[in-house]
Amino acid sequence: MNHIEFAVPAQHDFTGSMPLTGFLHRNANSDRPAFTFVDYNEDRAGIEHTLTWRELDLRARALAGQLRQTTAPGARVAILTPHDLNYVVAFLGCLYAGVIGVPLFAPEVSLHGSRLVGALADCDPEVWLATENALPQVRKLLDGELAPSPKQVLAVDKVDPSAAAGFRPALVSMDDPAYLQYTSGSTRAPSGAVITHRNLVVNSAQIAAAYGMDAGYTCSGWIPFFHDMGLMSMLAVPVLLGAHSVFCTPFAFLQRPERWLRQLAAHPNTLTAAPNFAYDYAVARTSDEFKSTVNLSRVKIMINGSEPVRAKTIERFNAAFGPAGLAPEAHRPSYGLAEATVYVTATGAAGPTVLKVDRAELSAGRLTPSTSDTALELVGAGTGIALRVLVVDPATGAALPEGAVGEVWVHGPNVADGYWQKPEESAQDFDGHLTSGPDSAPERGWLRTGDLGALHQGELFITGRAKDLIIIDGKNHYPQDIEGTVHEAHPAVRRDYVAAFALTEGADERVVVIAEYSRHVPEPDRDPAAVALAVRQAVSAHHDLRLADFRLVPPGKVRRTSSGKIARGATRDQYLSGAYGELL
User: In sequence order, what E strands does 382-446 have?
Assistant: First the structure.
């Protein structure tokens, strides 16, 4: 027997007894809308293109049948299609065929070209999936010999649906790799986390349970499918639940953020997910008229994750769109990472928790509530479902008590199998050894996230990345905390486009900040000297730090990862290379 027949498990299957394609098969006889792509390329109002569950299943099976002619189960297949319905077909077709999908992006997304080439070189796929209109860009990539050549380049939109005739899904073990999720590369070169079929289904169920979702929800957004948050919230979870997914491109959002919000308003029981910057961006780039006319009363869940979640962002967004019917508890700060498929913790139905903590105590490794005017506001990331989260001393492997800052460790069926063909890195990150902790806690197999955090009243608070930590005169400083101060120091600073990092000089470290200016502030009001003075004064007052250098640079100059996180290491390299002017 070379294929699998599906028996439908419970909706929230935290053991992962059936692959995601089993849930797709469950919906295959329905003509309900499954995925809708809103295309703004040819019409400013947007043209909707929809696949029903029946059509989606047919196209995914047809593609799988084509793949089976060229590849065997377990081969890698790169997804290089544009962000449209073809991407959904490509991913699900790979799952049906039993190959290891590699969710990437069309070569025309040149901003992250080096990441694309690096991923292709790392996993060496046998087949590249594209679309007919993207083939010229793919050919350029091949002609330039920038990545290993595949056996075949296949246009997903040209696969004949009749190829689905007689197709049966490949027989897979739930512990077989389903796809490779390449990490964002915020602190090192991207690596491919090996996500199994079990990881995929369990994490989808964890997300659905965490937010109380069912088939009556609409998943609506713009985050690309090559990003773990986009892939899970906008593709995997809708398939698990049989829910409707409505999406546009990231570029459509950046052009006009009101498109995203109108999308949310147009459907019932909507869930969306976006990084923190998107919420500030939507406030700043939508008109008062729009804010007064849009109706967001049907929005149930707004996940905020992927980068530091800021209390002031939530406050500004709720102030702007609360009058439009948005419930304050709809905002759901969350925490996750590619190595855990995506989801780790989520805020509950009560909405976000904002905790004011003493900065000096935090620098000393303690999360201590404070009522001081200079206290730091941290936003809780919630709790987990069907997994374990501990805060651990990374040097000893001992679990820490509530209020102590340490490394966040995760253990659960959603944790990936390691990195593709990187055994040493996998052993380091995926086999944390817990030397002491709760009696029921496993001793081995903990995911060491590299993120620092603390527990407070059972809720996880993320404080930063271990590798980004700045140590000055024996005190710990979190770069995102400094960046938050810079955001608020002067209106000319572009929100969420600030990078703080340390430079080592002898035995000492000194702090440098690179900040983009906002084009929406008139040039006379963004005098670099005035902005620098305001920033230096604010950093000194809030952090007792003297900046070694501050540069105000044009938009687009602060480096970001493919998922939108600040790439502090890359920005530091740019600074040292003289890209921002001569060094002081």
Answer: 388-392, 406-411
Residue 228 has phi, psi (to 5 degrees) of: -60, -40
Q: Which has the closest alpha carbon to 308: 129, 495, 43?
A: 495
Number of other CB atoms surrounding residue 7 within 10 Å: 8
| Contacts (Cβ under 8 Å, ≥6 apart) of 140 | 107
N residues, the chain: 584
How many angstroms from the chain centroid is the CA of residue 502? 25
Regarding beta strands 270-274 and 218-221, do their DSSP bridges make them parallel or antiparallel, or are they unpaired? parallel
Q: What is the Cα–Cα distance from 191 to 188, expressed in whole angstroms? A: 9
The alpha-carbon radius of gyration of the chain (Å, integer) is 24
Between 574 and 454, where is the model more confident?
A: 454
CB atoms within 10 A of CB 30: 14
143: enclosing H helix or E strand: helix 135-143
Torsion angle, CA of 163/237/134/103, rounded to 10 degrees? -100
Write the pLDDT tens digit of every residue in 301-317. Answer: 999 987 788 999 999 99
Cα 429 from Cα 340, distance rounded (Å): 11
If we measure between CA atoms, which residue out of 384, 342, 17 comes closest to residue 195? 342
Q: What is the pLDDT of residues 166-218, one digit of tens each?
A: 889 999 999 999 999 997 654 456 789 999 999 999 999 999 999 999 999 99
- The dihedrals phi and psi of 180, each to the nearest 5 degrees, come to -110, 120
**138 to each of 64, 93, 135, 152, 153, how far by Cα in Å?**
21, 20, 5, 12, 9
109, pLDDT greater than 80: no
CA nearest to 224, candidates 116, 84, 130, 129: 84
**Of 195-209, 386-400, 454-468, 492-506, which gets the smallest average pLDDT?**
492-506
